Structure formats: structure tokens, C-alpha cells
Input
Amino acid sequence: MSETTERRTLVTGGAGFIGSHLVDALLTRGEQVICLDNFDDYYSPERKRRNAAHHAQHDRYVLVEGDIRDRATIDAIFEEYQPQRVAHLAAMAGVRASIERAPLYTEVNVNGTINVFEAARQHEVENLVLASTSSVYGRTEQTPFLEDQSTDGALAPYPATKKACEVMAHAYHNMFGMNITALRFFTVYGPRVRSDMMAYIVMDRILRGETIRLFNGGEMHRDWTFVADITNGVVAALDKPLGFEIMNIGRGQPVRLGDFVEIIEELVGKNAVIDEVPAPASEPPITYANVDKARRLLGYEPQVSIQDGLLETWNWFKDEIAAP
Ligand SMILES: NC(=O)c1ccc[n+]([C@@H]2O[C@H](COP(=O)([O-])OP(=O)(O)OC[C@H]3O[C@@H](n4cnc5c(N)ncnc54)[C@H](O)[C@@H]3O)[C@@H](O)[C@H]2O)c1
Output
């Protein structure tokens, strides 16, 4: 790694969907990036390896294959590479998958995050950005979601662990003066999207002629946010230490699930086979970001429409996933 580039950022979960796009963005800006990822098998580790291979030739990129549950690994990274900033994205993601796996989600998302906070504190990092989630809002009637409304009604272990991280982030800021910004991402999609997410599932099943389980007849809304908008928000937050803040990073334009499926049907050129099922208790009827705070504090401005974002996602899917 060259000594000349000043900014060194540790990206945990940097081989994943959002993390790999963040690594792209940081490398494009001329930064040094240390990626820590354990290539967990929540979905194809092979896909994550492809994401990471994509960066491997870069001389300002280092990959450390390791686990955030292992404090020694994190300490060794800080000692060797001295990152000034941390984007902490490594996590067990996925609401429904967390239902039967609360212990694992707690170990990775809570204990692993504490390891990252501890190392960041001891090495006096300038700024830490934490990936949180719109799921912390649970089933609320108050839309659009504002950062200061209640997030005490988690519907599943996953949002409960993310909420715990936010609360612990506040404690670390309070105790040690650390700069930590928690960003609540709203349903992210784009190229390299996880295979458990709706955009991937709908494209995959339509293409194969397989049935899609559609919750509540498609009468649910999600504030789908294109991954480049999300990474712009993360980069802006990394650039601006703010003490402690929590911010929504979403699109601010919820889309009906049924309409989301229709856009994909048009892109694929085939109709979906739909099985209408009631939404599970873990699923809120709507997510809807108010992004005024991020706009004000970070200059965040989501740019990508659902049509353009899904077109880009489909182009990736067709070339990288569907192609033999
Ligand atoms: N995708 C979304 O819609 C969304 C929405 C809200 C929040 N988030 C959050 O954003 C972050 C990134 O999500 P994503 O969609 O890119 O998921 P992802 O699963 O693609 O990325 C997470 C990465 O973390 C790695 N990881 C998991 N456990 C680890 C461990 N113990 N040690 C080291 N690495 C580990 C995984 O291998 C993976 O590469 C997560 O914190 C997630 O909770 C995502």
C-alpha cells in the first residue's frame, strides 16, 4: 500500500453488496481502503469473492479475510494500516432470516460492532459510520419516518440488534467523544444486490418462470434506494465528523410492491407468476424516509429513480447472474 495517499478507510463488510460499491467509490476518490470481510455464507460467498476480486488488482486496496467477532483481527488491522476512518457495514443482514437466528445476529451485529468500536476508540479514529436500517422504525403509522420518532418497536432480531448498535454508538460518543454517525439505509437495490432481496428474487423467478410469493397482494410500500445514492450518503458522512448523529439515507419516494414487480416484468419481458400471501409479522406495511436531516447535514440528495435503478440492476442481473 502506498504511503502517499493520506486517507485510509477501513470498510468492514467490504466484499458485500453495499460494501463493495463503497470500496469502488473510495478507490475512485484516490483513498486507501482496507476491506475486512469473512465471506459469510448467508448468501453465495462466491459472489462476494467476485466482488472483492474486482478490487484486488488495485494498489490502494487491501483485503483482510477475517471476522469482526475476533478482536485480535481488528486490532491487527488498526496496528498495521492505521485507518483514520471506519465504515462499519459488516453484519448479518436480512429481517426474516434473523427470526430463527437471534443468537448469531446478536453475536455478529452487537458483539462484533463493540469490537469495532473498541478498536476504533483505542486507535483514535477520526470518524466512524455505522450501517443501520429503516427496519428500526418497525410498524409505525407516522410517515415519512423521522429520525427522532420512536424506534422501540423492533419486529425481529435484526432491527433489534441494529437499534442496540445505535444506542451503544451513543454511549461510545458520550464516554469517549468518538464521532459516530449511524445511517439508517432504506431497502437498497442495485447491481450485486443480495440474493435474498426482492429485486433479485423477482428478476430471478420471472426469468425462470417460478412463482413469486407476493405479500398482501403487493399492497406494501418500500422506499427502495439505489445503491449509488446510499454510498454517496456514506462517503459524505465519512467526510464529516459530527459527534453523534443518526440519519435516514433513503430515496423518500415509497413504491408499491405490486408496481415494483410490474417494472421488473417489463424489463424482463415476461409476466410474473404470483402467489399472494399475507405479510409475515416481521414485515412493516411501509418504509418511507424523510431525508431532510441528511440533506441538511451532509448535502445528501438521492438521484436515481426506481425505473433507472431497476434498469441498471437488470442489466447487471442479465449479464452476471442469468448468463450461463
Ligand atoms: N441492503 C439493504 O437493503 C440494507 C438496508 C439497511 C441496512 N443494511 C445494512 O448495510 C450493511 C451492508 O448490507 P448488504 O446489503 O451489503 O449486506 P451483505 O450481506 O451483502 O454485506 C455484509 C458483508 O458483511 C460480511 N460479514 C458478515 N458477517 C461478518 C463477520 N462476522 N465478520 C466480517 N464480515 C462479516 C459478509 O460476508 C458480507 O460481505 C449491513 O450492515 C446491513 O445490515 C442493508
Observations:
- The domain at 8-189+227-252+286-303 is CATH 3.40.50.720 (Rossmann fold).
- The chain has a mean pLDDT of 96.
